[in-house]
Amino acid sequence: AIISLRAQLNNALKDRGQKLSLNDFLIRAVALSLMEEPEVNVSFADNAILQHHHADIGIAVALPDGLITPIVKRANEKSVQDISTEIASLAKRAADRRLKPSEYEGGSFSVSNLGMFDIEHFTAVINPPQAAILAVGGTRERLMRRDGEIISQQEMQVTLSCDHRAVNGAT
Hints:
Layout: H1 2-13, H2 22-36, E1 42-45, E2 48-51, E3 57-59, E4 61-63, E5 66-68, E6 71-72, H3 80-95, E7 109-113, E8 132-146, E9 149-162
Parallel strand pairs: 3-7, 7-8
Antiparallel strand pairs: 1-2, 3-6, 4-5, 8-9
Helix pairs in contact: 2-3
């Protein structure tokens, strides 16, 4: 359903030169999920665990000499289109090495998406002081049974890595 919605929205946005990615939708979904599950929206500070009231999502961006995670601040308050615009700006400035420390330090959670590199599944490493990260693989067409019929559907594998000192595994 999200792939169909993305196609519809991209068709409507093509005159503006903007194209939404699946990652943009995922960032929005993660941000809203963190608001519903606040015990996961935490990070470490000295000897304390901070619970955040906003979803500040780090987006993994590969650079020639490493990885950086610029932060989409208050992603829970932004539309998918706003998130898309902000990610494009942050990624460009990261590639140009023009990010300010305030744009890549902190954050309450990160998302690392390797789907565009045809990676189906991986486990991401948590970015301290955050306590969790979501690894996102690419979509694959799968045959599955629904209501007694075999259908073709897009599927995506995601893996959540959590620091159990801060995030209860049962949560």
